[in-house]
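[stage:ingest] chain + small molecule (adenosine-5'-diphosphate)
[stage:ingest] validated
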Amino acid sequence: MTEEALVSEDCSIDLQWSQICSQLKMEFGETAFDSWLKPLTVGELSNGVMNICAPTAFMKNWVITHYSERINKIWEQKNQEVKKVNFIVQTGFANRRSTDSSLLKRISTTPTPQNIYGGNINSSSFGLVSGSTVTSEPVKSVANTQSTTIPNPNYTFDNFVVGKTNEFAYAAAKKVAESKNVSFNPLFLYSSVGLGKTHLMHSIIAHIKENTPNRNVIYLTAEQFVYKFVKALRYKDTTAFKEQFRSVDVLMVDDFQFMGNKGTTQDEFFHTFSSLVEEGKQVIIAADKSPTDLEGIESRLKSRLVGGLVVDIMPTDFDLRMGILKKKAELLNIDLPTKVAEFLAQKITSNVRELEGSLKRVAAHSQLLSGKEITLDMTQDVLKDMLRSIDRKTTIDEIQKKVAEHFNISVKELQSSRRARTVARPRQVAMYLAKQLTSRSLPEIGRKFDRDHTTVMHAVRKVEELIVEDTSLAENIEILRRTLEN
Ligand code: ADP
Ligand code: MG
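[stage:predict] done
[stage:export] tokens:
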């Protein structure tokens, strides 16, 4: 192969990998992606085998068990030369052309699931992060630089816009951040996605860091907790793990719904939690459901979680969306005409992340055109894809309803655990359509069916296979798709 061919193949593999990553992020959700998939890097394609590098053996095994099938499939679809994906542990750059500076850059900036920090935001004070278990692994230095990247400097109390739907959550978060004495324990925040839970949690950290820097804070997601615990078990280093978590003043666990099913990890969390509460240390938890609605959580833990203050953030109203747009425009330093803000606040109602994303797109567009004024026309044009899908307004509820009607079963049956073919197949079709017609992630779709994301992934794949062989099913799906899209 010529040098030039090598370079161009290299570029296209990088590009394909970044596209695959976007897809994986969409399918598995941001949290799982950031924790497990983002740290992977792509290696050489040789004799049809694509090498994917993981920073540690543990991570490699985890990815193989949970994600390899899907990664394999997507690679095969993307690049016909790829016959098989092979996961390896990255030890230096031996598996890749050594001149590949983009890889060097990628590896040195790749986040690992070690976003954890103390009161002084110095990860070296954490036994597990800097302890012997990590020292033996190749990317230790990466792990140690990560903690400085968060909290997100934009996520402060000052930048949080308060309205009727979130004022209680805001007040509770502020109170926890300001007072050294624990008034409610834990503080449990919940809401659907994109409504400001993580923003409030980061605001608490920023406040503590500024006002009482000696308070030792750990913030991490439930998935990172699980990861760390499993790793500690594996390296027989649970003492350091326990000490690390039990010596904090404030423990914050985000995305608690990913704590995993009952078992050793939950036991460990339960004991950590109980000992912190007994010692009067603050625990703050955020999740997408109330403690009582959380799935797979032991009842003794649930009852402890409701023992503090449980606060929900409701979906935004129009006024709050207007306030948020104004604030975000200020932060982005852009001139946002009221008409455009009203248009966005009317159209993009489901979550603040999307609202902010649309504003950023419009702002970027205007900047690309050398600061061209933002107008309603421009906004509609830049956001046309997004607006079209919003106008279509296909929701998972609607899909479930239409699919159930079509196959003559009830929505309850569709959501039930019944496995009879007459129910199971329509359920798979509904999951498939939900993936195709909405922008919901696999875990989000799963929740609507009382299943986890792997079941949805399996259903999507199954239907993709069936469509090829079973023309009658393919026709049924086509009819459903058309009804739903109209
Ligand atoms: P969640 O953790 O509930 O999924 P996030 O905290 O990540 O949501 O919020 C998503 C985005 O929306 C963030 O960029 C956050 O700054 C923004 N956001 C949400 N609510 C507000 C609010 N009330 N004021 C300002 N920004 C907000
Ligand atoms: Mg969040």
